[in-house]
Each structure stands twice: as C-alpha cells, then as structure tokens.
C-alpha cells in the first residue's frame, strides 16, 4: 500500500500536489492500493478549509485514493488520527518498557535547548517519565542521527504523540510498503526506522521502499504552506505539469 499523507495545517502548494501525484503513480505502477491518510494530530493549526483543500486538490489532480476518507465528514468521523490515539498511547508505553535506556524525560524549553544544545543533563538525569510537563525524547547519542535530529521527541509536553511516533505507528498499522516523500524528510525516515526497531517492528526499510524526491522550488526558495498560496487555482501550473514532475521523480534512480 502507498499513502498520501498531507497535514491540514495550511493550503497545499504545488510541491504537495506533485508529491500526491508521485505516490499515485507509484501505486499505479506497482498495482498497490492508495491510502489517503490525513495527519491531523496538530489540532492547533487545523482548519476546516485546509481539510477541504486536501479533497479539492485530489479532485483537481483526478487522483482517487482506494482507501481512506471520502470527504471531510467521513474523515472526522472515521479517519482522524484522534481515532487511532489508543495505538499511539500503546506504542509510547511499549517504547518505555522495551527501551528504558533510550526513552528519557525532558522539561527543557525550546529556548534552553537552542541555547545549550542538549549536551547537558536530561538524557542521563532519569527524570520520571510521569512528571507533568515533560517531553519524552529518544536518546540518539549513539546513532548517526544525532548530528541532524538530536534526541527527537516522541511525546510532546502536552502528552500527545509526536509526528515521528504517529507516522511510525500508522505506517505499520496500515501496512505501507512504498512511499514517495520529499528529501527534507530523510532524517525523519531515519528517526522512524529507529523507532520501528525500538518498537520491535520488522525493519522499516525492509517493509517500506522509500523514494526521496527533490523539493519543488520557487525561484530557488523552498515552497511552504505559509507563503500565502490560497489554493490550487493560484499555482499557475497545470495538472499535466504536476504529473510530469512527479513522473520524473519516480523514474530517476
Ligand atoms: Zn532537557
């Protein structure tokens, strides 16, 4: 199974659409199901118009996922990540039991972390995981990931699962076997492979064939949902152009 996994935290841009197309082409080429998985854990940035935008962009691309929500109402009712919260909570408990040496509690603020890095006490301080207001992190010091994604978060200070945790659990839950994602997510793939191992899942890179594609640039700058794009009609590109880019991504070795 292949997935399209947008986050409804802004209007999608042409780069997101090209990623959708790449996954749709991948599913078609390999005869796999295509799952629409909308990652809505970040409810603070969620807006109904962003959710609707996902369906509008898919319709414009003429992509029809074979599994997943049919519309926003179906999504909220049956497919929201909130519905899978018990799976994430169970995975966090499993990590804490299976990997007590790697999971640690960290009360540090963003400012503190930026100032001092994380070379100080938290990973070794063994602060109780049940203390109020601590994030749960993975000690990455013995991994190659440490340079790029040091001690990434698996449970936020508000007790909710992080993106890395939820994505790892969801990919396993839905049986994802191939995935095209932006090369900016290479470190995420490494973090998720580590979590997958710690959770005792079969090795991530043996289960899922990842294809990291370049990011679409706008005059040399990375596209972002915050750059004021207000929906598919203002991108100034055609559906055919989007698919041409996506086709190139999935055929370039
Ligand atoms: Zn800390």
What can you see in these coordinates?
By secondary structure, the chain is an alpha/beta fold. The chain folds into two domains: 2-82 and 174-251, Rossmann fold (3-Layer(aba) Sandwich), CATH 3.40.50.620; 86-155, no CATH class. It has helices spanning 14-30, 48-61, 72-79, 85-98, 110-116, 122-125, 163-174, 186-198, 204-207, 239-251, and strands at residues 2-4, 34-36, 103-106, 135-138, 153-155, 178-182, 209-213, 217-218, 221-222. It starts with a strand and ends with a helix. The model has no long low-confidence stretch (mean pLDDT 92). Zinc ion binds at residues 106, 108, 122. Belongs to the class-I aminoacyl-tRNA synthetase family. InterPro entries: Glu/Gln-tRNA-synth, Glu/Gln-tRNA-synth_Ib_cat-dom, GluQ/Sye, Rossmann-like_a/b/a_fold.
Task: Indicate the topology.
Blueprint: E1 2-4, H1 14-30, E2 34-36, H2 48-61, H3 72-79, H4 85-98, E3 103-106, H5 110-116, H6 122-125, E4 135-138, E5 153-155, H7 163-174, E6 178-182, H8 186-198, H9 204-207, E7 209-213, E8 217-218, E9 221-222, H10 239-251
Parallel strand pairs: 1-2, 6-7
Antiparallel strand pairs: 3-4, 4-5, 8-9
Bound molecules: zinc ion.
Organism: Neolewinella aquimaris
Domain Glutamyl/glutaminyl-tRNA synthetase class Ib catalytic: 2-115, 132-244
Protein name: Glutamyl/glutaminyl-tRNA synthetase
The count of β-strands is 9
**Widest sheet: strand order?**
3-4-5
* Ligands, deduplicated: zinc ion
- The secondary-structure element order is EHEHHHEHHEEHEHHEEEH
Alpha-carbon distance between the termini? 21 Å
Total tally of structural domains: 2
Low-confidence stretches: none
Give the C-alpha Rg.
19 Å
Helix amount, in percent? 40-55%
Q: Quick one: CATH class of the largest domain?
A: Alpha Beta
What's the number of helices? Answer: 10
Largest sheet: 3 strands, antiparallel
Provide mean pLDDT, rounded: 92
Q: What class do helices, strands and sheet pairing give?
A: alpha/beta
From the coordinates shown, what is the CATH architecture of the largest domain? 3-Layer(aba) Sandwich
Query: Which term fits the overall shape?
Result: globular
Q: Determine the CATH topology of the largest domain.
A: Rossmann fold
The fourth-level CATH homologous superfamily of the largest domain is HUPs
Protein name: Glutamyl/glutaminyl-tRNA synthetase
Family: Belongs to the class-I aminoacyl-tRNA synthetase family.
GO molecular function, one term: glutamate-tRNA ligase activity
Pfam family, one: tRNA-synt_1c
